[in-house]
Amino acid sequence: GENVEQHPSTLSVQEGDSAVIKCTYSDSASNYFPWYKQELGKRPQLIIDIRSNVGEKKDQRIAVTLNKTAKHFSLHITETQPEDSAVYFCAASITGANSKLTFGKGITLSVRP
Amino acid sequence: DAGITQSPRYKITETGRQVTLMCHQTWSHSYMFWYRQDLGHGLRLIYYSAAADITDKGEVPDGYVVSRSKTENFPLTLESATRSQTSVYFCASSVDSEQFFGPGTRLTVL
Q1: How far is it, in rounded angstroms, from Cα B104 to Cα B97?
Q2: In whole angstroms, what is the distance from residue A44 CA to residue B42 CA?
Q3: Which of A36, A99, A102, A108 to mutate to probe the B interface, most B CBs <10 Å?
Q4: What is the pLDDT of residues A63-77, one digit of tens each?
Q5: What is the spatial distance between Cα A99 and Cα A93, in angstroms, rounded to a whole number?
Q6: A76-111, pLDDT tens digit by residue?
């Protein structure tokens, strides 16, 4: 089955700097890669996703890039703000199959004011 | 997000008791999922359902039972709760692989 790994497990950046979170996946058939943000005590919420037919997708301060050859994808957050502090989960799945997502273990991002 | 709800939000029970966690969605999504979230393990899939009366095991199904008689409801039952089942439980529903999570249930087994 699919295996998704996130590294590092924690990341601390200064407010205003950029943050990059990387994930790798194992199943070359995976074609849908979402990122979820989970604030303390809250539910995971989808912030951006990418499908394998594109290499990059942007939404204001966040972007996701996908390298299918290397089987990794990354979340980029520019001009970080304290409210970006949260746990971020990446996931992978095969669309049209059973809609199951395989999640990474999450990374805790801390933005220092 | 108001379209998927979970109840109760908090539950304290004792070892050996049966507990049922409820999940209800108003979007008529075909797929529904149950996850548990523990520190250091991320989100682990317990069971999922493709449609009413169709369920399948996930990564950590032992000790749990699910049913889905109606599309909108997907209850999770712990038949005989154990301390290792203390966790935060999230229900989710899905359309085209995009999953939407409920607010979670924090379960403590004493």
Answers
A1: 20
A2: 11
A3: A99
A4: 999 999 999 999 999
A5: 7
A6: 999 999 999 999 999 999 876 677 899 999 999 999
- Closest-CA distance, B45 to chain A, in angstroms, reads 8
* B80 CB-side CA count, 13 A: 2
Whole-number pLDDT of residue A97: 64
Look at chain A and count its residues.
Answer: 113
- Which residue in B100, B59, B107 sits closest to A43, CA to CA? B100
Q: Could you tell me how many helices (H) and strands (E) chain B has, helices first?
A: 0, 11
Supply the pLDDT for residue A87. 96
- Measured distance CA(A103)–CA(A91) in Å, rounded: 4
The residues pairing with B83 across neighbouring beta strands, listed in sequence order, are none
Q: Find out whether A25 and A68 touch, Cβ atoms under 8 Å.
A: no
Nearest by CB: B94 against A44, A99, A105: A99
| CB pair distance less than 8 Å for B50 and A46 | no
